[in-house]
Design goal:
Blueprint lengths: L3 H10 L1 H21 L5 H17 L11 H20 L18 H8 L4 H13 L2 H12 L4 H8 L3 H21 L2
Length: about 180
């Protein structure tokens, strides 16, 4: 697997080969980010292609001083997905954080709760994730599946790292509550 620096150097030296490297490195990850926002697989595939075309056609505008290549690419994917959802559903409903009190839970407690390795637990987690609002699923995808830092996520969604940290904590608490209710 090539590093981002190698991908960018190859794009400069041999654009078609560099584009192939970029697609190989990021296509699945972009699809994952978009899928966390958009439910329909056909729409996910279309939006993934649109996002990657935008990435390839605007790669010259990428500035390493403003963030990593991954952050730049995820930002494009995120914006495409959110724009699509807004066009499809003008009103997006979300969990109201004040509806129910949720217990405070640490990452370690949640990990202990989920580390049983039982297939039922994994299925319960997947079902709980589906109950979350789109933006919450996106944060989970970026943080846990794409290994983005809080700062990178903040840059992608236009928030502060502190706000992202607090939001992830509330999401983990919601997941814990959903999992313990259904246990």
């Amino acid at each position: 697997m090539c590093t981002d620096k190698e991908i960018l150097q190859t794009i400069d030296a041999n654009p078609p080969q560099g584009q192939r490297l970029l697609l190989a490195a990021y296509q699945q990850r972009v699809q994952s980010v978009i899928a966390s926002v958009v439910g329909n697989i056909k729409d996910v595939e279309d939006l993934t292609q649109e996002a990657l075309i935008t990435v390839l056609s605007t790669i010259d505008s990428y500035k390493p001083s403003r963030g990593t290549l991954a952050t730049w690419i995820y930002t494009i994917a995120y914006r495409k997905a959110v724009s699509f959802v807004r066009q499809q559903r003008p009103v997006i409903l979300s969990f109201d954080d004040t509806d129910t009190a949720v217990p405070s839970i640490s990452d370690e407690q949640l990990a202990d709760e989920l580390s049983t390795g039982r297939e039922e637990r994994i299925q319960a987690l997947e079902q709980a994730l589906e109950l979350l609002p789109v933006h919450d699923r996106l944060l989970i995808t970026l943080y846990y599946y794409q290994d983005c830092s809080l700062a990178e996520i903040a840059s992608i969604i236009g928030a502060t790292a502190n706000a992202v940290s607090h939001r992830l904590r509330r999401i983990r608490e919601k997941l814990y509550t959903l999992l313990t209710i259904n246990a």
